[in-house]
Amino acid sequence: MRCFNCGAELSEVSFCTNCKSDVSLYKKIVYMSNRLYNDGLERARVRDLSGAVKSLRQSLKLNKENTDARNLLGLIYFEMGETAQALGEWVISANFRETENMAGEYIGMIQENQAEFDVFKKSARDFNRALEMCRQGNKDLAMISLKKIVKSNSRYIKASQLLALLYMDKNQYDEAERELSHALSIDKTNTLSLKYMQKIHENAEAAENDARGGFFRKDETPIRKIVDNELIIQPANVHEPRNGSFGTIFNILIGLILGLAVMYFLVLPARVTSVREETRADIEELQSNLDKRNADYDALQHDLDEVNAERLRLLDSLDGYVGESGTLADIDKLIDAANLYITGGDVALVGEDLWEIYASLDPEEMSDSCRALFESLRSSVSPYLADITSGYAYGSYNISDYEKSAVLFEKAFFYNNENNEALYFAAVSYQNIGDNDKAKEIYQYIVENYPGTYIESMSSQALEQLNGVNG
Amino acid sequence: MIDFEEELKKFYPSLEVEELEEAVNGADLTDAVDIYVRMGKEAAAAQAAAQPVRDMRPGRRY
Question: Of A270, A310, A378, B7, which alpha carbon lies 20 to 30 A from A332's?
């Protein structure tokens, strides 16, 4: 702090050590100015811009060279959209102190951003024109102009307030409220903004009281309150439910019951019908698939039956070829017999083998080679065995051993096909032992193959006799 | 209710940049310090005027 008279640095004493002037009151003025600056700074920090402006103006009224207060005042004007006023304060501040002063930097920053500076200049000019239009009664034009200003320079509080006033004049209170809420978000304690906001609320309440009409009607006026610069409109008669109260539980239960009823009567039937249709479609599809599978199964079963039948038939055929009584065994036996005969073996054994082959296998079923071999062997052994066998057969017949004679007569006929008597006595022997079927078979063979012979007549008589007995 | 015309009177034109020089030059920057200094000077002048001028010419004595 310097002496106002000589400019010397002041000490703690109440007079200037250089010019001896009394500086006690001067010091008090400077201290008071600084205190007001601090107050303005505190207010600005909580966005009480109007209060800050008042404090800072008082501070500067006490000490115009308080550059901190003047710079802060410029900043607040700038924040409120009054750019020219802010520049004015900073210019004055820079004149008082040319060095170590933020005012010069603020001016420089504005000059650097020329586009934004132009917007600020145009905003002030347009606002003044809009104000003039309002005074001339051209409210609509003024409103259009102010809307543009607010849009381009949203911090211009005066423009927002004038626009809100025009809205209120047109009874557009919601729009006016919105503009004022915005203005109050910049400057919380602006008296004009608060006054207009209060008027809006009073007007809204009065309008709703008029609309209610009856004394006993419930108050439905929305509760309006500003929290953190935001206008909150809370509908009347709407209360937050109290946690844990019986009413809350009851309401939840009612809601659940209603929900379940809606589900049961509306949603569930439709869902059940839908599910039923889906299920029916699934069942029909499954039935169709099942029918198809059954048809396939039947076809496969039929094929399997055919395959099994073919298999059994082949097995039967195979049985005819393999085994002790099969064709292959007979062929082996035929080869053995041929080998026995060639090697000079017992002719009777050869004949016995041939008889067994003949008894189990019809020579007509043999291959040509086998049949040729069979006939060749039979013709070879027949001269040796035919008579002997025939003799044994008659011997057995004479002693009434018909079972043995029946077979021996058949063998005799086997060795000698011209010995048809042996065949006849074989039939008689079978008849005697009661095997009439075999006997009739042989009689019939004789009748068919030896016509005109005496054994044919005897066979015919025997057949008639047997047929008469059987018939 | 809001009286539009009355409320309109509370609005003043904003300072435009073109008017800045004139506004700064014409601003009344008188502060309490100025008044105090002026009052001090005026008081000193008044005190000086109230005191009789002593005749310091040679041979003049009280």
Answer: A310
**A349–chain B Cβ distance below 8 A for any pair:** no
Sequence ranges of the domains in chain A:
24-112, 119-234, 357-470
pLDDT tens column, A32-45: 999 999 999 999 99
- Are the beta carbons of A352 and A346 closer than 8 angstroms? no
- Furthest C-alpha separation in chain A: 197
CB contact under 8 A, A84 and B36: no
**Domain A24-112: which CATH number of 1.10.3470.10, 1.10.3430.10, 3.20.20.70, 1.25.40.10:** 1.25.40.10
Tell me whether A134 touches chain B (CB under 8 Å): yes
CATH topology of domain A357-470: 1.25.40
- Confidence tier at A324 by pLDDT (50, 70, 90): low
Judged by CB atoms closer than 8 Å, whether chains meet at B24 and A203 is answered as no
Closest-CA residue to A427 (of A391, A373, A466, A389): A466
> Which residue in A227, A221, A167 sits closest to A196, CA to CA?
A167
Give A178 to chain B, closest Cα distance, Å: 17
Q: Does A165 touch chain B (CB under 8 A)?
A: yes
ipTM: 0.79
Structure tokens at A26: 């001067």
Give A228→chain B minimum CA distance, Å. Answer: 26
Burial of residue B40 (CB within 10 Å: 0-12, 13-18, 19+) is: middle
Whether the CB-CB separation of A161 and A192 falls below 8 Å is answered with: yes
Q: Tokens 């009052």 belong to which residue?
A: B39
Confidence of residue A238 (pLDDT cuts 50, 70, 90): low
Q: Is residue A471 scored above 60 in pLDDT?
A: no
Nearest CA in chain A to B31: A61
**A21 vs B40: CB contact, 8 Å cut-off?**
yes
CB atoms within 10 A of CB A302: 10
Residue A15 three-state SS: strand
Closest CA–CA distance from residue B15 to any residue of chain A (Å): 6
A182-191: per-residue pLDDT in tens?
999 999 999 9
Domain A119-234, CATH: 1.25.40.10
Q: Please give the structure tokens belonging to residue B52.
A: 């009789």
Poorest-pLDDT segment among A124-128, A194-198, A205-209: A205-209
Q: Which of B14, B36, B40 sits opposite A29 (nearest CB)?
A: B36
Nearest to residue A219, comparing CAs of A245, A239, A190?
A239
- List the one residue out of A355, A425, A431, A434 whose CA is nearest residue A397: A425
Stretch 22-51 of chain A: residues touching chain B, C-beta under 8 Å: 22, 25-26, 29-30, 33
pLDDT band at A7 (very low <50, low <70, confident <90, very high): confident
Q: Which of B13, B19, B37 sits opposite A4 (nearest CB)?
A: B37
